[in-house]
Amino acid sequence: MIIDFHTHAFPDNLAEHAINALEAECDVKTKHAGTVSSLLGSMDDAGIDISVICSIATKPSQFEPILSWSKQIDSQRIIPFPSLHPDDPDPYEKIKIIHNEGFKGIKLHPYYQKFAIDEERLFPIYEACSHYRLLLVCHTGFDIAFPRDRIADPEKIEFITSRFPNLMFIATHLGGWYDWDEVDRYLIGNPRYMEISFSLEELPAETARRMIVAHQRGYLLFGTDSPWTDQKKALELLKSLNLHPNLEKEILYLNAARLLGLDAGM
Q: Containing domain of residue 10, as a range?
C-alpha cells in the first residue's frame, strides 16, 4: 500500500483555468490535467493506492465551495483536506465544521494566503486544530512562484510546534523547500512531521538519504505535490535511495495510515 500525502486537484469545470493560471505563475508544466479523474489515472500508473488532495482557500468566501466539493470527491482512494482562509471572521467555527463533516485535516499555504506561520492571527486555527485533532498540512520553505520571503521557514515551524505541542503540523517539502540547511538545523531528528514532495527532485540523492535516515522514525510521509511532479517518478526517486525496507514502508504507508486512522494491515 502507498499513500501520497500531498496532491492537488480541482473541480472539472475549473481545472483547465486553474492549471493554466498556475503554470503561468510557476513556469512549471503539470503532469496531468488537474482533475480528480486524471489524478486517479496517475495513481494507477504509479501504483499509488490513496492520495490526500490538499485544497487552498485564497479568500474567505471559498470555504463553502471547497467544503462542498471535498464532500463530493471523498472516497476510499481520495482523502480531501479542505481549507479555510486566515482572514475568516470565525476560523474556530470553520475548523469545527470541517471536523464535524468527518475530514481528517486541512491545508494552509502561507504564500497564496498571505500570512507568516508565526503570526498571532493564525493561533486560533492552531488551537482549533489541536482541540479537534485535525491534521494541518502547511506549505513550508520558499515557493517557486513567489519572492523568497521567510514566512514559513524551519525556525518558525519549530516555534509553532513547540508553542502548540498538540498540533499535528505536517511540513511539506521535507520541512522547507529550498531551505534545507535550516531544516537540518531546526527539524531533522526532532519529532516533527514532514512529507517529502518536491525535495528528492531538487536535493542530491546522498543529501536526501542522509536527512531521511537521520529524522525521527514515524514522522516522515511520502508526498508528490502532483500534478506538479510525476507520481511514478517521485516514487522511483524514493526507492532509488535504497532505504531500509522497514523505513521505506513507514514513509510510504504506515505513518500516513496511523495519522489518517486507516487500518495499517490493509
A: 3-260
